[in-house]
Amino acid sequence: MIDVLAELNQHLELENVHSEAFIPYGIVLSDFPYDEVAQHMEKTVIPEEGNRYVPSHPDLEDEALKSFVEKRYYGGMKVQIGYCNGNNSSLGGLEYHKGSEINVAITDLVLLLGHANDIFDNSYNVKKIKAFFVPAGSTIEMYQTTLHLAPCKVSEAGFKCAVILPEGTNTPLDDAEKGYDPLLFMRNKWLLAHKEHERFMKLGAHNGIVGENITVAYPSKEQRRKLNV
Q1: Residue 199, SS3?
Q2: Coil, strand or helix: which one is 213?
Q3: Fewest 10 Å CB contacts: which of 109, 111, 133, 197?
Q4: Distances from the Cα of 151 to the Cαs of 65, 75, 92, 167, in angstroms?
Q5: Distance between CA atoms of 229 and 220, rounded to whole angstroms?
Q6: How far apart are the C-alpha atoms of 115 and 125, rounded to whole Å?
Q7: What is the DSSP letter of 72?
Q8: DSSP class of 10
Q9: Does 207 map to a domain?
Q10: 93-97-132-56 Cα dihedral, nearest 10 degrees
């Protein structure tokens, strides 16, 4: 699949998340209890349009699973386990959090990533973006310095991804709590939006992405059938 995506996306520097190129951005968690999360994710659906992000879902926050994740990967900190399913194909913006984010790829997907230390004057240039193919069955931890947003789909069916973050992340903040930080968009969510992302712009997100709103092309059903991918 990655070879097909690379051919369709020659405007991107596309690597496999299992390659050494991912090391500056995060780590693949080979010991993560993937099957347990995947079983719960079977009950979730991909919306017909757009994305659906649920920060915390009771089925995924099984007591034993949640406790294991907190102890094994977060040093005993409380976490939330939710999901992001959808049809996204574009960058839209970039966010970061204080604390690592774990993504569990239930389907194949692509992540567009950057580094927080490349933010200058509250702006980020898309020329520094790196694209990573994340095969279904992979679990990755992205460091808090890694800029990211929703995954991009690699087929017409959309994508499914479980998302683990420090408890309270991506929940609402009032204006007084945001203070004078133009990038602080929600609790533990610093966001640079692209001007073409209408919802972010309407919600008052900071217009901080310089360059095109990168789009990831994917093979059609007919192309997938011919290529057997």
Answers
A1: helix
A2: coil
A3: 197
A4: 24, 26, 11, 21
A5: 11
A6: 11
A7: H
A8: T
A9: yes
A10: -90
The SS3 of residue 121 is coil
How many Å apart are CA 83 and CA 30, to the nearest integer? 20
Residues in the chain: 229
- Between CA 182 and CA 111 the distance in angstroms is 25
For residue 128, give the 3-state DSSP assignment: helix
Neighbouring C-beta atoms of residue 218, cutoff 10 Å: 21
β-bridge mates for residue 110, sequence order: 133, 152
The DSSP output letter for 166 is E
pLDDT tens readout for residues 46-70: 999 999 999 999 999 999 999 999 9
Contacts of 27 (CB under 8 A, 6+ apart): 140, 141
Identify the domain containing residue 27 by its residue range. Answer: 2-221
- pLDDT number for residue 229: 75
- Structural domain count, the chain: 1
Cβ proximity of 167 and 36 under 8 Å? no
Domain membership of residue 151 (yes or no) is yes
